[in-house]
UniProtKB/TrEMBL annotation:
Protein name: Glycosyltransferase family 2 protein
Annotated CDD domains: DPM_DPG-synthase_like
Leader sequence residues: none
Glycosyltransferase 2-like domain residues: 10-146
Top-rank taxon, per record: Bacteria
Family to which the UniProt record says this protein belongs: Belongs to the glycosyltransferase 2 family.
Organism this protein belongs to: Leucobacter coleopterorum
Organism lineage: Bacteria, Bacillati, Actinomycetota, Actinomycetes, Micrococcales
Matching PANTHER family: RFBJ PROTEIN (PTHR48090:SF7), UNDECAPRENYL-PHOSPHATE 4-DEOXY-4-FORMAMIDO-L-ARABINOSE TRANSFERASE-RELATED (PTHR48090)
Gene3D superfamilies per UniProt: Spore Coat Polysaccharide Biosynthesis Protein SpsA, Chain A (3.90.550.10)
Length: 251
């Protein structure tokens, strides 16, 4: 691994996840001993904070719901302020397998570490890879395929899952995203990739296995899925129209 687990911050955005947050936090801590687990309570109206703390996580609370992007920006700022060179985004509903984290982190650029590996700044944990049974249908599937094709060409790297919420970020990505991470719907995935590319970040992809939700309420219902396609196109347009980040890095 490019970085030891003691230097890895696991950021878990959570909105009304009291049913599962404790078991997910415990699994992460058992699977990744030494890593720090940070739950960002995104304006929950339930006992998410209490359950997460009881399970051993550090918790930051947002006063109202900002969405995954807003929660992750706070997570990046926490990582930067507390000296963590790696921040891994992990769902709080149990769909992401924490056992995949070491492989994602291993592909990060460790130039600030001891071995000088020339890796990526952001590693995307991709669904829809060989051996993974995760499926989507209808408008969401069409949108994901379109976005993957456009963004793969724009970023000059093949990405089959540009809306994945399972990603590892190295020091340069943390520095950029602590200030520039978008909070809009789909901005935390589509727009963040474009922002990172324009700032000179390098991307890689690694296949991961998705699991069923351990509980709670899914973020997508039939109505949301029906309008996903239009929102995806809008998010892509905004991503390319958005001004370049103020802080750049050498590519």
């Amino acid at each position: 691994m490019a970085f030891p687990l003691e230097r890895v911050l696991i950021v878990m955005p959570a909105f009304n996840e009291q049913e599962v947050i404790a078991s997910v936090v415990r699994e992460v801590r058992e699977t990744l001993p030494g890593a720090t687990v940070l739950v960002v309570n995104d304006g929950s109206a339930d006992a998410t904070t209490e359950r997460a703390r009881e399970a051993g996580a550090r918790v930051l609370e947002l006063p109202f719901n900002l969405g995954v992007g807003g929660a992750m920006r706070l997570g990046f700022r926490y990582a930067e302020a507390n000296g963590f060179p790696v921040a891994v985004q992990l769902d709080s509903d149990g769909q992401h397998n924490p056992a995949d984290v070491p492989a994602l982190v291993a592909l990060l650029d460790a130039s600030e570490g001891s071995n000088g590996v020339d890796g990526a700044d952001v590693v995307v944990g991709a669904r829809f890879t060989e051996g993974d049974n995760y499926e989507v249908r209808g408008p969401r599937k069409w949108a994901m395929r379109f976005l993957s094709g456009v963004l793969s060409r724009a970023l000059h790297v093949k990405l089959s899952d540009t809306t994945s919420g399972f990603k590892a970020h190295g020091p340069r990505a943390i520095s950029i995203f602590a200030r520039e991470y978008p909070a809009e719907y789909l901005g935390d995935t589509i727009e963040a990739l474009v922002i990172g590319h324009r700032a000179g970040l390098r991307f890689a992809q690694l296949g991961v296995t998705m699991r069923e939700r351990a509980g709670g309420t899914p973020s997508h219902n039939p109505l949301k899925s029906a309008i996903y396609l239009g929102r995806a196109f809008f998010a892509l347009a905004i991503a390319f129209l958005r001004p370049r980040p103020k802080t750049g890095v050498e590519s």
